[in-house]
Amino acid sequence: MNAAHEVPIIRELSTSPEFMVEVGNRPVQYRTTNGLVRSPEWDSGRQKTGYISEAGRCLVMQARINARPVVIVLLDSWGKYTRVADANRLKKWLESHFGRKPGVG
């Protein structure tokens, strides 16, 4: 996560819901399929979903929950959307079990 954060284009593209690039003379619009990137409920700094045979369907993300920095790593998710649902469940659990930092909002 730290290495990805050091490269501005990786940081930007990993958290952008859409991005336009010029291909030849025409613009091409890319939109993420990652629901966590599109969600206004998340304050994420960078994230990546993916798949490799050794780890299965994965998600790694850095975010702020209740004004606290967290890193979430999910490996071998059961289904295509399970890692997103699991991340949302973790977020709700963290929000309910760890209050806001003293003096914040």
Largest sheet: 3 strands, antiparallel
**Class based on secondary structure composition and strand pairing:** alpha+beta
Unreliable runs: none
- The radius of gyration over CA amounts to 15 Å
Spatial strand arrangement across the major sheet = 3-4-5
What can you see in these coordinates?
This protein is α+β, with helices and mostly antiparallel strands and 105 residues long. The chain contains 4 helices and 5 strands; from the N terminus they run H-H-E-E-H-E-E-E-H. It has helices at residues 2-6, 8-13, 35-38, 82-97; strands at residues 18-23, 26-31, 43-52, 56-65, 68-77. The strands form 2 sheets. It has a 3-stranded antiparallel sheet with strand order 3-4-5. The longest helix has 16 residues, at 82-97. It starts with a helix and ends in an 8-residue tail after the last helix. The mean pLDDT is 86.
Keywords:
single chain, 105 residues, alpha+beta, Beta-lactamase, 3-stranded antiparallel β-sheet, two-stranded antiparallel sheet, 40% strand, globular
Tell me the layout of helices and strands.
Elements: H1 2-6, H2 8-13, E1 18-23, E2 26-31, H3 35-38, E3 43-52, E4 56-65, E5 68-77, H4 82-97
Antiparallel strand pairs: 1-2, 3-4, 4-5
